[in-house]
Amino acid sequence: MDTSLVRKDTSLHVAITLEQFWHRVPGGSATSIWEMVRALSDHDVAVTGVSAWHKKRPPLRFRLETPIEWIPLPRPVLYETWHRLRRPKVESVTGRVDVIHATTLAIPPKSAPLVVTIHDLAFLHAPEHFTTRGNRFFRRGLELAIEDADLIVCPSEATAADCRNHGLEAERVRVVPWGVSTQRASERDVSDVRGRLGLDMPYLLWTGTVEPRKNLSGLVEAYLSLDTESMDTDMMLVLAGPKGWNEDLDTIASRGGDRVRSLGFVQPDDLRALYAGAEAFCYPSLFEGFGLPVIEAMAQGTPVITSAGTATEEAAGGAAVLVDPRDPTSIAAGIARALDEREALREASFARAGELTWAACADRMQAVYREAAHRPTVFPEDPA
Description:
With about 375 residues, this protein is of the alpha/beta class. The chain contains 15 helices and 13 strands.
């Protein structure tokens, strides 16, 4: 623990798992938890982070003024002992807390009222997109959430409905949408990033962690089918995000030759400028728990094309062009429409992003903590 960080006295003390800050690919879940914890600082809630043992502090972009207590086990061992042996307790390093919040399906033993965030159940719908070890981990985590959680938090109603359909009682499920920073990139920011990255022509943008459910093959196929002669100008397709798993990004991008650019991981400030400089943001994902990039693009006033009938439609709140993600023809038509209607979509995007703030997310989350802390709960006996 960093002893320079002193926890303030408040009426509610919550231990929150923050292990995803050290993941090779942190993704939207790490960003959402980081932003939420920062926003909770304005509430009457004391937060102590909990993680496995690491040689270093989390990457700079995930540093917090919140104390983080390390359980002296490496992540694989900690997760295995949590899921199989139901030890060690979070409170062995935090002291007594009012609520434990498991922010992923790594479920610690229950020694206080337990809140669990379930971001999505993609592993049940498309297990082939995950490793054998990953599937085993997620399924065991879901079993423990069903057994032990006092309340389940989902970032969207779509995910909440999925949870109810897979055995979680409706009275335990709460929806807490993620938020977005409304800080806008300046024209200078956009010009600087485009210059550094060599983006010297108009572009369409996609961003995220590269994995099968992101549907990059469908997006590239749709982009290459666009009738460029009927458009105002030709434009490239830019893919920004780290390599994840089970998807060959180089092969997918190579189908477009020099018309498709893969940038790899992009720092948050640069990503904000990339969103702002794009002609449109394309996110025809097959399955999401929320779809943070959709509202990040909207916060920059960028027209969005995303998937109908998914959590990203819910996140977009009527301000995006909706397409069938499994039909490249539909995606291509959606891109063309977004470009035609970009001014109207720009205003709708700003309005929608303004409705989803991290302050509102923290308001809802602290209400969940208080509900969990005051409801009757049963703690499992310590394993023999």
